[in-house]
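ok here's Protoheme IX farnesyltransferase:
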Amino acid sequence: MTDISSQPQAFEGEASFGDYFALMKPRVMQLVVFTALVGMLAAPNGVNPVVGFASILFIAIGAGASGALNMWWDADIDHIMKRTANRPIPSGKVQPGEALSIGVALSGLSVMMLALSANLLAAGLLAFTIFFYAVIYSMWLKRSTPQNIVIGGAAGAFPPVIGWVVATGSMSVEAWLMFALIFMWTPPHFWALALFMKSDYDDAKVPMLTVTHGRKSTRKHILAYTVLLVILAVGTAFTSIGGLIYLTTAVILNVLFLKGAFDIWRRDEAQAEADGYAVEKSFFKLSLLYLFLHFGAIMAEALLRSSGYGGW
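and the structure:
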């Protein structure tokens, strides 16, 4: 992290609640809450509604803590990148020290309360997830290797495992399959974003694959990871968390996703610039729907199974 005090920013007095809430990356929190809930519901045994609600709340707080710590550390490059320049710290609404204090306090609170409301294994996984995102990814991987988003994707993949552990007190193959879905989805999702964000990562000197290996190589990587993701996603249909609803959803989505990755692979930069990166932007939007619908299908199977339907 560089000294952001050298950046031309002026703090604008007292921040609002919305500014502090934005530190917690609410959009990311939504994904964390949803996948953790799916992991909890997909588990073979039920959870007391009060315990379940409290656990999801503390997992969400832990995700918010990770976001605040990430924004504190990345304030210097957030100031440079157009996509992140309006975040609370680079825009001058929140001071870096405040973000650090909030992140540390919420980290401790979320882990402690999850241990009390659920179990120690779930709390330990949440603590590791916060550490992985704030330290391993943000402070180390993000600025040191083009594999940053590949390895760092693990941080976003833990929530369904934590949800499963809240319900069962243990881990299983099914929990790690949900982890793998997010883990394998993350690289093509962010590489597509990097393709059409153009100079953001170059300007901030973040070694994304587009910067270190070029855009042609990035297009090849998107296709390769998508092929692996398709095999994993469709194969999951034939496990205990799958079923006909999930299989139908997975087949449709993965045909579309694979076609999108193929279209990205066969394009060059001249074609992409000519239509304003329309294919890459479309693939990125589809990737958001892709993950939501896969986990939505897993949740539907779990709810039907609890009523004597669903599954195989």
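+1. The domain at 19-169 is CATH 1.10.357.140 (Tetracycline Repressor; domain 2).
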